[in-house]
Amino acid sequence: MNPTKLVPLLTAAALWLSPGSSAFAAETAGLPPLPPAMNVPKPGPVTDAPYAPQPILPGGVVVPLYPPGSPYLKAERMREAEVYNMNGSAPGRIASIVNIHNPSIEFHAGNRSLNTGAVVIVVAGGGHNTLNVGGEGADFVPFFANHGISTVILRNRLRRDGYDAKTDAVYDAQQAIKLVRAYSKEWKLDPAKIGIMGFSAGAELATPAALFWKEFDQKNNVPENPFAAVSSRPDFVGVVYPGPTPFAAPRGANAGAPFTTPAIPRDTPPSFIVCAGWGDRGHAIWANDWFTAMLNAGIPNVEMHIYARGHHPGDKVGPDEPPSTGGLTNRGFIAYGTWQDRYIEWMRDLGFLGKPGVETLAARDVAANLTRPERAAGGRRGGDAAPAVAPK
Q1: pTM reported for the whole predicted model
Q2: Please, which residues have CB within 8 angstroms of residue 339's CB and are 6 or more apart in sequence?
Q3: How many CA atoms lie within 13 A of 23 on its CB side?
């Protein structure tokens, strides 16, 4: 057939079958209705016992962070049920959770045939007002599993529910690392390959967890704590379009106010940092604050990607701009949508995707950093400025 005659025929067929056509409506009028979504996750019931967090995804192993009588919990609220906000365009999928008073972790094993032993604790964002466990949590379970990495979804307490983001929520992140390491044998994990990755407000938990783990361990080194001997130090850190880190200068009404940056321990774990630049300038500055502090302190294996184009999740953008989506979404097929591939490359480069039980390059570099000589104030070595590091 002549191609010029084929095009009108194909166009007519497309119009005939298009959902908006009257012909399509007539053809489908007699179809039986579709069944509702199945196995839709629901919060647990309210009982006289502490609320029992339910899995976000099938197969999740949910473990509360603290025992019922813990001083970290509010006894008057720990029986309240969590509230699930469902994704309106994807039936049965949780978008976010609020009203978290019995914080927990949810474990999902990776593809064990790949046998890496690595695990990432994902800490969702949401401005401390909601916990976006869909795009910045549940989506990573199949992605990481495909690389032999297990996933832990943290459900931490929120400022909107009356908690302090700088203490309560950070304690949740640190306690999550303790629990994952404590159960590493049961979950077939390598206790030296436990990482934490925070998104936006979640990065405000991951970054202090990487710096202040010794203080948390000392505070909780009490006889009645079964996890007292377990370290809360993460082995690697992901910092994704972060909120302010401990090195961020005050902004807004407090701009210019004096502030003290914390000392950086020499055994601070390596960091992977990612953000968009022009379209997410504020968060890129916070990302650069963390990178610059780590670089100046001589912390090994810190990698940062600031992409030219992209926006912070939820920001309003123009019709010609890439969408303001987060997590693993492709963001309109721009380069920023491939950041997760760079993260996997970084993990592989540092040895986290090798066989479990084998010392990683990251661990060797941390050990070497602990033994390097002190640099004189104002001194230089290899072009590096003298770091402000905590003593060994």
Answers
A1: 0.89
A2: 240, 274, 305, 307
A3: 7
Structure tokens at 356: 């479990």
d(CA 200, CA 319): 24
pLDDT value at position 218? 97
- Residue 358 carries which DSSP code? S
Rounded Cα gap, residues 227 and 217, in angstroms: 9
Q: What are the structural domain ranges in the chain?
A: 41-251+261-385
Using DSSP, state whether 287 is helix, strand or coil. Answer: helix
Query: Residue 213's closest CA among 259, 185, 183, 181?
Result: 181
Cβ neighbours of residue 14 closer than 8 Å, sequence gap 6 or more: none
**Look-up of token digits 């066989």:** 355
Closest to 299 measured CA to CA, from 273, 334, 279, 326? 273
Strand partners, 304: 273
Asked if 120 contacts 152 with a C-beta cutoff of 8 angstroms, the reply is: yes
Question: Taking the alpha carbons of 120, 337, 305, 239 in that order, is the dihedral positive or negative?
Answer: negative
Q: How do residues 205-249 score in pLDDT, each as one tens digit?
A: 999 999 999 999 999 999 999 999 999 999 999 999 999 999 998
- Cβ 100 vs Cβ 79: under 8 Å: no
Contact of 176 with 152, CB cutoff 8 Å: yes
Which of helix, strand or coil describes residue 291?
Answer: helix
Homologous superfamily assigned to 41-251+261-385? Alpha/Beta hydrolase fold, catalytic domain (3.40.50.1820)
pLDDT > 60? residue 125: yes
Q: Which of 198, 60, 185 is nearest to 136 (CA)?
A: 198
Token code pair at residue 326:
């987060």
Q: Give the highest mean pLDDT range of 1-5, 122-126, 370-374.
A: 122-126
Q: How many CB atoms lie within 10 A of CB 72?
A: 16
Which tens digit of pLDDT belongs to each residue from 25-61?
667 778 999 888 888 999 999 999 999 999 999 999 9
Residue 386: band (very low, low, confident or very high) from pLDDT cuts 50, 70, 90: very low
